[in-house]
Amino acid sequence: MRKVSHLSETKSSKEEVDRRKFLKYTGAFVAGAVIAGAGVAAYDASKPVPIQTVTQTLTAPPVTVTQTAGPPPPPQLVGWSPRPGKPYAGTTLNVAAYRGWICYAGARKKIPEFEDATGIKVNLVEIPSPDILSRPLIDFSSGTKAYDVTTTSSGFWPAYFPYALDLTKYATEDFGRVDAFTSQMSSAAAKKTIYQGQLRAVPIHANMQFIVYRRDLMESDNEKTAFKAKYGRELGQPKSYDELVDLGTFFTRPEQDMKGFTYWGFKELGGYVYAAMVWAERHIPFIDEKYVIDIEAGPGRDRAIWLAQYLVDLTKKYKITPDDPSSIKTGTAWEMYLAGKTPMIFGWMGDYWGMARASDVTSKYGQPAGWPWVVPGGWASCWGLLADAATDKPGAAWEFIKWNASKDVQGAMADGSGQGSWFKLWNQDQVAKGWTAAGVADGLEAPGSTFPAFIPEWAQIENGVIVVEVPKLVSFEYTPTQLVDALVAGIKKAIKK
User: How far apart are CA 489 and CA 298, in angstroms?
Assistant: First the structure.
């Protein structure tokens, strides 16, 4: 793992103490910890646990947004407008942002509108991954005040919260009550924004891993007829693990150099895919907030091993994926899709939904469509904005954070990338307009939609364990059992630091 790019300022002794104190949050970046594996292992060909059929209905009804549906929300909506009189005009905000993040591109383009409306100048300091997660934390905790506002993933919020600005006062002034603001979010996200009874974060991004598929194939009369003749059921959304294998097998066509199913497997991407599969079923992100490791024993361990075996079998047994899933980067999968070499991709496909709607793509394959995983839910991605408690510009910081969460800006982000929104009405509107995939919405609303464990050590677990160990499964260095053992050992080491 790469080292953190520290702030350019000379660190004071206090800053150095704080940096060491919070290595448990950023240790994966600084130390590059790797748990020793059990060596190169042969593929485990033992028969997996019998495949379980998912009986729940997976397809959510279409979302229709009307002006008359449901209770009117005007009391909350009034608060979204900028404060009159431009009280913060002349202020400059230094905002740490994720460099190259396609999901933020729509908001970035609209920043001049915010500056005109408020008189606040925004200095967007774009920081690459993974430094965007850790560098502002060092700044917040050391009091150097390099950034007034930062962008970060919800898995890292607990590390930031002790140093984040309490936004309760501002939300109350604008919306009447803080819960009038948070009630517009999904309940899962709203709970995560509160620290010691205070509003400390605001979500601006939602995503789920889901399957994007080619409608021209899935809706073809010839394909439907051939599929039904072979499998005795209609061609459509897989509702069990067996059905996903059948669908992938049907569309694996060597003569066309086409693999039926592709997932993002390169380095950390493979970690996210496997975690999504386990979390969707278990509703637990490997470890819960009471520090119980779900995959260590019992049903959690059994299912984690079975799902790891299933992932291996997709390639080794059924041969429906690319031969080396660990080589499949996001761009690689997308190029395969465009070239007609795969009809289905699983990953954070909300990031590509906007491109899938481009005219040159739709002219070939029609408008894109998506399904959630066999069991909807999994790793719920939530990025948000937090302000430094030490900022000299708290009111301006709130105006910027609130603006990013507004319907107009959330829509612009969705239109350009396909991301969802943790603000319920905004998400419904985006899906209805085709900006956000129904697969994202289905996943976000599923019982299995799970946030990373809300513990300070999560940073170490995600970046020092999950994204280090899972690639050894999808490159076939680990057997499924070895993977789960390595994950458990790594998690135990992380929480003891």
Answer: 16
